[in-house]
Design goal:
alpha/beta, Rossmann fold, Helicase, Ruva Protein, domain 3, five-stranded parallel β-sheet, two-stranded antiparallel sheet, globular
Length: about 300
């Protein structure tokens, strides 16, 4: 079975556990194959954590889960030095961030100080504590869920935190037909326990390299630049679109091309991933789903090369 066939199988199996639009599962998987981080925003009870856990099992990598609460401290995430009576010295005890896939429940319920503990590790895949630096093993990805902006007990994510997320997905409510399947389905935990890994750690590392090396023509690069310039010129877009966002948009387009079995990128790849790459970086006081809807309407305002 080729890597591309395995990816399609991962999507299919995950879609049996999280019942909903297949395209949402594809967009949730894409950052993990590109070496990026994913932000999932929606109201409680729509299956954010279920989808994240299913992908973690199917990818065959180590994952840990951290529930963000308002009393969580940075040391609870990164780790801390503990005095050892045996050696009579302080030893570093690693926190749950030392894993391949980190599932963070309700990221925006933690205070800004605790949220900021993720900034370095998401950017550099390492942490610095008390003049010591600790490297994390690859692959490394954060899948964070958050409740919509404005809900009780939430703290807004700062721009620097939003920009470190490669993509975002808003799952939305299921259709009546899908909700019927959910209502009559067996227990989620039982379904998750039946999943078996399809990909291996080394295969994910190889996929990331292959995606990075995919061919991109000069006109398509300028197509991405045209989108970035167009969005920066819109008055209603009150957050700046960073160069990192442009790099992520191009890499996500490569990732989609790989998932489709192509060795080159086409404009339709850029159009498909644009709302999910840019949506969470566009507005401050607005939910991701609304931002993504806005971007889907803007897609056709930029000429295809």
């Amino acid at each position: 079975m080729t890597k591309n066939e395995k990816i399609k199988r991962v999507i299919h199996e995950a879609n049996q556990i999280w019942i909903g639009e297949k395209s949402k599962v594809e967009m949730a998987l894409l950052p993990l194959l590109c070496g990026g981080h994913l932000l999932i925003e929606d109201s409680p009870g729509v299956g954010k954590t279920t989808l994240a856990k299913a992908l973690g099992i199917l990818l065959g990598i180590n994952y840990s889960r951290i529930s963000f609460t308002n009393d969580l401290l940075p040391g609870d995430i990164l780790g801390t030095h503990i005095f050892s009576k045996k050696t009579e010295e302080f030893l570093f005890q690693k926190g749950p961030i030392f894993s391949n896939l980190i599932l963070i429940d309700e990221l925006n319920r933690a205070t800004p100080k605790t949220q900021s503990a993720l900034l370095q590790v998401m950017e550099e895949q390492k942490i610095s504590i008390e003049n010591q630096t600790f490297e994390l093993d690859g692959p490394f990805a954060v899948m964070a869920t958050q409740n919509p902006f404005g809900q009780i007990g939430t703290f807004p994510l700062p721009e620097s935190q939003r920009d470190r997320f490669f993509m975002s997905v808003s799952l939305g409510l299921p259709t009546r037909r899908d909700e019927e399947k959910i209502l009559i389905n067996h227990s989620t935990e039982k379904n998750l326990s039946s999943l078996k890994p399809i990909l291996k750690k080394q295969e994910i590392i190889e996929i990331k390299k292959e995606v990075f090396l995919l061919e991109v023509s000069s006109p398509l690069v300028h197509y991405v630049l045209d989108f970035i310039e167009f969005l920066r010129a819109q008055e209603e877009c009150n957050l700046p679109i960073s160069p990192r966002c442009g790099k992520d948009l191009l890499l996500a387009s490569k990732g989609r091309a790989f998932m489709e079995g192509r060795s080159y990128v086409i404009p339709e790849d850029v159009q498909a991933v644009l709302p999910f790459v840019v949506g969470h970086r566009l507005f401050y006081h607005q939910n991701i789903e609304k931002a993504q809807t806005y971007l889907k309407e803007m897609v056709h305002h930029v000429a295809i090369p």
